[in-house]
Design a protein that fits this description.
The protein is an all-alpha fold and 177 residues long. The protein folds into two domains: 7-90, no CATH class; 96-169, Arc Repressor Mutant, subunit A (Orthogonal Bundle), CATH 1.10.10. 69% of the residues lie in helices and 0% in strands. The chain has helices spanning 7-17, 19-27, 37-56, 65-90, 96-101, 111-115, 117-125, 128-140, 144-151, 155-169. The longest helix has 26 residues, at 65-90. The radius of gyration is 25 Å and the shape is rod-shaped. The model is unreliable at 104-108 (pLDDT under 50).
Length: 177
Amino acid sequence: MKSFFDWEEEVAFFTQYEGIIYKVMKDLHVPRSHAQYEDFLQNGRIKLVEAYVEKSKQANFPERFVGFAYRKVRWKLLDLLRKEQRHIERSAHWSDELNEVMSDVHTDMGTALCESEWVQQIWQALDAEEQRLIYEWAFVGSSVTDIAKKFGISRKTVYERRKKIQLKLMPYKMPKV
């Protein structure tokens, strides 16, 4: 496969324009310590070359290339940041509603809690499948993806079942001790 640039052109190109990527990352508050920093940098380089190829076909190149490239790289990195955020949100173990219902359970969950009438009421309100899902979320700490793989169901099904469990448990409030 033929490269778009030869070696010297590539070095000159990135020497001249790679600062655009660093500026975008700075503007988007992506520090060097970010777990995906190198991936973002590489994606920015790819998008920079794509912008160059696209803009070089136009008559007003190179006067407006820097602004054009900045926008293209920014949009790409924003997409990556949004995907990362969606992944974080989707892999959350508990929703706010379920946290409210189960608010004080995390403190003393030993045998006293498991033997309490309140926990037995909740447990009896759930079917066997729901009990296994609650066990995976609350005690094992599995993510939605892990639960889906373990039970051989889709992530969407896990979300739907979790919502059903949340609705089912809303009437049960932790008794005041």
